[in-house]
Amino acid sequence: MDKKFVLDLNLSDWEVYMKEKSYPKFRALQVFSWYSKGVLDMTKMSNVPQEIKNAIREDFITDSMSIEKHLVSEIDGTQKFVFRLYDGHCVETVLMRYKTGLSICISSQAGCKMGCRFCASAHAGFGRSLTRGEMLGQVLLAGSFAGERIHSVVVMGIGEPFDNYDELIGFLHLANDEKGLNLGARHITVSTCGLVPQMIQFSLIDMQVNLSVSLHAPNDELRKSIMPIANKYSLSELLDACREYEKNTNRRITFEYSLFDGVNDTAECARELCKVLKGIHCHINLIAANEFDGSPFRRSKPGSVRAFQDLLEKNGMTVTLRREMGTDIMAACGQLRRGMQEKKET
Asked: In terms of domains, do 10 and 158 share one?
């Protein structure tokens, strides 16, 4: 990318830009404030001179992130956005309503390189990593479209956030900026499939951002069969990184565990999971697995899910079963983009 996307810049960046262009410093805050409200259309920036608007159009990418698709669930009102970026790549964003307010699940990459066998994103190819502004843009534009402030953000959509580490951290600072979006760090969650070095690095950033780890198996053999990353980092290494995170941040970790029929939903798996997580301050989020054409996995039967959850709770684990939302609009990450990609190739 020869030019930066306008949302990539923080306030200090805009101040430097205005100084280089010999514009007054206060113009930086004006421009930054408009962009932080999700206003990308510069014709609406009423207090910014036309000369500055022209310069920004010349020096930056200003016309990225158009809404390619927008779907609303008739079941629960969940909204799914497909944003088309300036270079043609698409990413998915899901907006969900909870009692606490609107929560948004954003993507960190256009596609994913991790290759998890149960994930629709892994079967749709990899385009590129997103910039910090393209991550922020999903929050700003979806919130602006909904006409309501976003309460919480999870970086759990398409892509592996820690495979795009520097831009992820840049996004966190942009989202947390009190003169920008001003979203509290505790209202942001980052999910990883287990990139151990980045997990340890993340534990030292001095921001109270939540960490979620996609576990999905209680031992190396099973985890390797469904998640290629397990061939690089063993379960022991992963859990050591989790302990390091807990020690450095004093924060609880969430373990995501998708349940697949006859694969990882047995009583033996539940007991083994309790054993390996013993001593880690954690919360287990059980997920009724998403199914898609071509996947070798099927979701666990309701009875198996209940039995698995009961066994964990009897062993003292804190467990919730994630509420399914937007099933009628393919709200699970990667499903809609994958379908669009297949249709395009056909």
From this structure: no
Out of 177-186, 245-254, 284-293, pick the least confident.
Answer: 284-293
* pLDDT given for residue 337 in this prediction: 47
* Distance in angstroms (rounded) separating the CA atoms of residues 293 and 275: 34
107 and 151 share a domain? yes
Task: Report the pLDDT averaged over residues 120-145.
Answer: 92
| Integer Cα distance of 111 and 308 in angstroms | 32
Q: How far is 226 from 122, CA to CA, in rounded Å?
A: 12
DSSP 156-193: -SSS-GGGGHHHHHHHHHHHH-TTTT---GGGEEEEES
Averaged pLDDT for residues 103-107: 98
The domain total for the chain is 2
Structural domain harbouring 91: 71-345
- pLDDT per position as a tens digit, 296-340: 889 999 999 999 999 999 999 999 998 877 777 775 554 554 454
Domain CATH number, residue 269: 3.20.20.70
Share of the chain above pLDDT 70, in %: 94
State phi, psi for 37 to the nearest 5 degrees: -95, 0
Q: Are residues 14 and 86 in the same domain?
A: no
Q: Choose the catalytic residue: 92, 134, 160, 256.
A: 92
CA–CA gap between residue 115 and residue 109 (Å, rounded): 13
Say whether pLDDT at 31 is over 80. Answer: yes
- 269 counts as catalytic: no
Residue type, 340: M
Same domain, 232 and 304: yes
- The mean per-residue pLDDT over the stretch 249-255 comes to 97
* Statement to judge: residues 26 and 78 lie in one domain: no
Annotation says 112 is catalytic:
no
Catalytic residue (choose from 90, 112, 119, 333): 333
Domain presence at residue 1: no
Q: Does 332 fall in a domain?
A: yes
The answer to whether residue 85 is domain-embedded is yes
